Amino acid sequence: MTRRELEVFVLVSIVLACTESPSHLPVGPVIRDSAGVRIVGNSAATWTVPWRIAEAPSLTIGSIDGDSTHELYDVTGALRLDDGRVVVANHGTRELRFYDRLGTYMGSAGGRGGGPGEFESLEWIARFGPDSILVLDVWAHRVSYFDTAGRFGRSVQLEPSAEILLPRPVGFFADGSLLATHGLYHLGGELPIRSEREEDELFRYRPDGASATVVGSFPGPERDIVSLSGPGGAPRVERRARLFGRATGFAAAGHRFYVADNATYEIRVYSTDPIQLMLLIRKEHTPLVVTDADARAMRDSLLASRSGPARRMMQRSFENRPPLPPVMPAYAPDIHLDPDLNLWVREYTRPGERHVSWSIFTDAGVFLGTLSTPWGLKILDIGRDYVLGLRRDEYDVEYVQMHRLIRGS
Fold it and tell me: Which strand (E) or helix (H) includes residue 3?
């Protein structure tokens, strides 16, 4: 047994030793309170009849050879409205596109520009109440309100801040205030070669866009500090995304927000007024050990997405990095909320595996169970009886697809 294999064996043994034997695990959640914080420990699914998602889509929007109104490019969001219509944020044309329940194009709103109802960027959309669509224009620091017919109502200018150059949206609260994050990136760097986690700060904009306040600072993405050769062969220090690195996912809705740091299987839930930790959701988890095959598959996938000088530079960075972590993150930093505030957490999978699983927790933190979504579908919107997502085919053509969600009990 090599030294690395011994380290992995010891680490996994410690993690497993901290849990009960599978034959003695409780069948339901273990709930306790600590200093006003509810802690829910989960070990097994609690639903009687599992939920499932239909493999075949019930609706597909997009075309490889249709007219331009059905050609999608750089989709950044999509929502199904109460009457069955679907609105797609098509960033490539800076439009909100509306389609009926059969996928027929009905019209567009927005367009490129800086005027009222226009977009310099179309990064994110969300529903607000029963009859409003909110659109975040990151480059213009502006939130625009449209009704569900696509008519522009008003816009709110986000007050500029030295700390927030380009806000990344997390969600809207019930009062219309926006929760956004902005990574605290450090320029330059110093050797020795190492790994470190950056910080993500959360900011809350008031409904009128003014007075962004700091909600908190949380661990951000994990990166490798690597030494590369710059112009003329001079050494250069860069930060690169760490393979199998830890990261934090965020979500917000109603009067709460979620912080999901995947270093461990725990999600922290905060109330908004006042801001305080109210719930810890935990799930028993056996870490996936990082193997040499996993490392090769991850590197090959990243290299295949690049060409020319970018590919060669990435190849060199692989040769001069810190050792890989012994185990993978507890889950992927990808979380969503459905209309009942059930939390969907995407499970981590080994590179090359062609399946995606989601663990679902109630708003009280109880683990319902795990379901699979169709391969290649990126979730954009979840309803009570559907999942709406984005898929790309082998030619990189984009499609927005709806799949039926069948709930058990």
Answer: helix 3-17
Classified as helix, coil or strand, 70 is: helix
Please name the amino acid found at residue 238.
E
Q: Give the long-range contacts of residues 232-236, CB within 8 A, separation 24 or more.
A: none
pLDDT in tens, 18-38: 444 444 444 678 988 888 899
- Quick check: 210 pLDDT over 90? no
pLDDT of residue 321: 81
Residue with tokens 């006042």, as numbered in its chain: 274
Tell me the residue ranges of DSSP E strands in 343-396.
343-346, 356-361, 367-373, 378-382, 386-392
pLDDT digits (tens, 9 = 90+) for 284-337: 999 999 999 999 999 888 888 788 888 887 787 787 788 899 999 999 999 999
User: Strand 256-261 vs strand 248-253: parallel, antiparallel, or unpaired?
Assistant: antiparallel
The answer to whether 80 touches 388, Cβ cutoff 8 Å, is yes
Determine contact, residues 79/90, Cβ cutoff 8 Å: no
3-state secondary structure of 296: helix
375 vs 192: which has the higher pLDDT: 375
Q: What are phi and psi of 154, to 5 degrees?
A: -160, 170
How many Cβ atoms sit within 10 Å of the Cβ of residue 78? 23
Q: Are 134 and 253 in contact (CB under 8 A)?
A: no
Distance (Å, whole) CA 197 – CA 150: 41
Strand order in the sheet with 356-361: 335-337, 343-346, 356-361, 367-373
Confidence class for position 402, pLDDT limits 50, 70, 90: very high
CA distances from 255 to 168, 309, 375 (A): 19, 47, 33
What is the token pair recorded at 291?
Answer: 């193997």
Burial of 264 (0-12, 13-18, 19+ CB in 10 A): middle
Question: What is the reported pLDDT for 409?
Answer: 65
